[in-house]
Write a structure and sequence with these properties.
Layout: H1 3-19, H2 30-39, H3 75-81, H4 99-105, H5 125-140, H6 146-151, E1 159-160, E2 166-170, H7 175-180, H8 187-198, E3 207-210, H9 224-241, E4 245-249, H10 251-258, H11 264-267, E5 271-274, E6 277-282, H12 285-290, H13 295-309
Parallel strand pairs: 2-3, 2-4, 4-6
Antiparallel strand pairs: 1-3, 5-6
Helix pairs in contact: 5-9
The structure holds uracil.
Uracil (URA) binds at residues 170-174, 177, 183-184, 186, 188-189, 210, 286.
């Protein structure tokens, strides 16, 4: 198999595994694929120097990556170069695959992986404030979801420390948030504040944001397209803030960030990864208000994270 075929097949396999709930896999870039091939002792499929494979001109012949390419960049920094925080598309089907195969594969959505460092530069606090203020202005005028934009009183961007160790990632604004423009200020918000304080933190110490920035009418779940329209906003927030931990509150936040279809019950109880951040999944405070018996499990989740963070709560 040629390198580009191997790379493409690996990216498709990785995408399939990820959708099936596999939590970690090497990213489908040339470096990882080469490492994988090496570990299985695959013969190097590249033609020997001077040889030419069918359909490949001498001018275009080039190993997947050579020292002449300059220092290897991380996948994340390549994504940042493309101006897509947190997104890394799979390569498109190689030209030589033949029309039938190419058309079968056309339209396969790009896989996104989030391993390695956050894309872009790690900014100082004043620059973070600037980036976030400018993004908040953009979000305030957003019309990507015309229906949500026409129903909202205002957008709810997020708030808190710009150098947070912990970020709390919710689903979307409710009526109270829509009215005030601040995240988690209603009943669920009051419980979240108590959860934060039980962690020996103050609300001001952490950053609180939502998956979608507009209130879905009637407090329905956000639609997949609405989430995708907002993805750029929350990925930019997170790659600017670079929290050490992201706490996903409920299924919408967890499945969106981790790109998983698994339930909160399946995702909780361990730390996942989103770029440099460790990710904890737990129940949404609104769910805890409806199901108080789940509070113990949520507290166990938070304690798992606090132990990892070296924070003692005395319980
Ligand atoms: N629920 C959320 O997910 N986010 C809020 O801001 C409020 C309630």
């Amino acid at each position: 198999m040629r390198n580009d075929e191997l790379l493409y097949a690996a990216s498709q396999l990785a995408r399939h595994l990820k959708r099936s709930g596999v939590q970690w896999m090497p990213g489908p870039d040339a470096e990882n694929v080469a490492r994988l091939a090496e570990s299985f002792q695959l013969p190097d499929a590249r033609p020997p120097d001077g040889a030419q494979t069918p359909g490949q001109s001498a001018a275009s012949r080039k190993p997947a990556s050579t020292p002449a390419d300059g220092p290897r960049k991380s996948a994340a920094s390549r994504a940042a170069d493309r101006g897509q925080p947190g997104r890394r598309p799979a390569p498109s089907p190689p030209d030589h695959l033949g029309d039938a195969t190419r058309s079968r594969l056309a339209g396969v959505p790009p896989m996104e992986v989030s391993d390695g460092p956050y894309p872009g530069e790690n900014l100082l606090a004043p620059q973070r404030v600037e980036v976030l203020e400018s993004l908040a202005n953009t979000v305030a005028q957003c019309q990507r979801c015309p229906h949500l934009a026409s129903c909202r009183k205002q957008t709810v961007f997020g708030e808190g420390s710009v150098t947070p160790r912990f970020a709390f990632f919710g689903e979307g604004p409710g009526a109270d948030e829509d009215r005030t423009g601040r995240p988690f200020v209603g009943r669920a918000g009051q419980l979240l504040t108590k959860m934060i304080e039980a962690c020996t933190l103050r609300r001001d110490d952490v950053y609180i944001l939502n998956t979608v920035k507009c209130r879905p009418p009637g407090n329905r779940n956000p639609e997949p397209t609405e989430i995708e329209n907002c993805r750029e906003y929350f990925t930019t927030q997170l790659s600017t803030l670079r929290p050490e931990y992201v706490v996903c509150l409920g299924a919408v936040a967890a499945q969106t960030l981790l790109q998983s279809k698994l339930s909160v019950g399946r995702l909780r109880g361990k730390l996942h990864r989103y770029f440099d951040s460790k990710v904890l999944v737990t129940y949404h405070p609104a769910y805890l208000l409806r199901n108080p018996s789940a509070k113990r499990a949520a507290w166990e989740d938070l304690q798992l994270m606090l132990r990892d963070a070296g924070i003692r709560t005395g319980q």
